[in-house]
From TrEMBL:
The protein's name: Alternative oxidase
Protein's UniProt keywords contain Transport: yes
Enzyme class: oxidoreductase
Species: Kwoniella shandongensis
Pfam families: AOX
Amino acid sequence: MSALVLRQGALARSTLLSRPIVGTASLLTRGVAGPSRRAFSLSARARIQADKPKQASLALQDGVRQREERSENAGQVVGEPGKGVEGPHYQDQIPMAENVLTDTNITGAWTMMNPIYTEAELDTVQVVGRPPITVADKAAHGTVKFLRKCFDFLTRYKAVEIPQSVLQQNPIPIAELRAKGQLLSDQKWLFRFILLESIAGVPGMVGGTLRHLRSMRLLRRDGGWIHSLLEEAENERMHLLTFMTMAQPSIITRGLVLAAQGVFYNAFFLTYLFSPKSAHRFVGALEEEAVRTYTHCIEDMEAGLIPEWKDHPAPRIAIDYWRLPSDSKLIDVIRAVRADEATHRFVNHSLANLDQKKDFNPFALVEANAETRGAKWGFTREESANFAKEQQQKLIQAAQDQSPAHQQ
């Protein structure tokens, strides 16, 4: 997968830079509508071409923006105002070759972007963590550690490394290890996944909701945050739906999900309302634990410790969502889920380092490449600023290179 993945809305997947970049990227350089020939009124077209400062992404007029930049503790604002900073609109893209909404031969059309991974990219995911620095960081990590212990107790999970001497036995005494609590059965793994994903889908929706309301309340645009947060919530929901195809939760499991969501949603809502930075740090730490969990499961599968899942076919919903080969196995799905969790880890730690009121979402136009998301805990604020500027310049240059005037 290319290091530049253009963020698209409905119908879009991972768009490589090798494809013609039009639409919003072109608007950045030409100030007119892309190939979709969207109809603008004369007055609207004039406003778009003028690119008036008052229509900047965060709706900050020049005087207001200069005043904020000169204020105490003000630093470089991540991202710059202008057209396209919040990501392209799907209607501004080149029409796709097939109609993915009606052609039954095309796999399901997902309304929000989701990563599509290569085999090499899946191998880059590592268990990494960001050391807590501030008091808020330590509180977020401490809360996650406490919740992890409660969750482990509830699901009877133990992060025990099975000795090589045991793994070399033929056959491996799986039943004995499970009886000792050193291994989870396939059903217990599913129970853990379902509880985990039913909670993991909450933060993105809460954050997106509160930023949505704030945008309307202040009559200002959001800088590309809302869409990324809603994508995260949708992605976690797809994880849950994938595992739900393999198990039917009991009434007890459904009750636990209901209770956990009721408590967690309201607690996270209040946290995000008063300290969104701490909320994102909490999610980043939570995703660190999710990567550890899925890594442990993958290692058990590769060691033959979950024989029920050996050569288990991938659910159809997962094949459609991640665009997996039709003969993919369950382990391929779990590796894709782990890569998604690594992305959430990277994004939330990066967002936690930003100014929550002024900074643009550096990943609105372009995501960091999969290798970076898999091996790095996140970007510092300075790295986010440099990344946003660099990628925007690359997109502008790509649009200029593919313009008719340049090709003549």
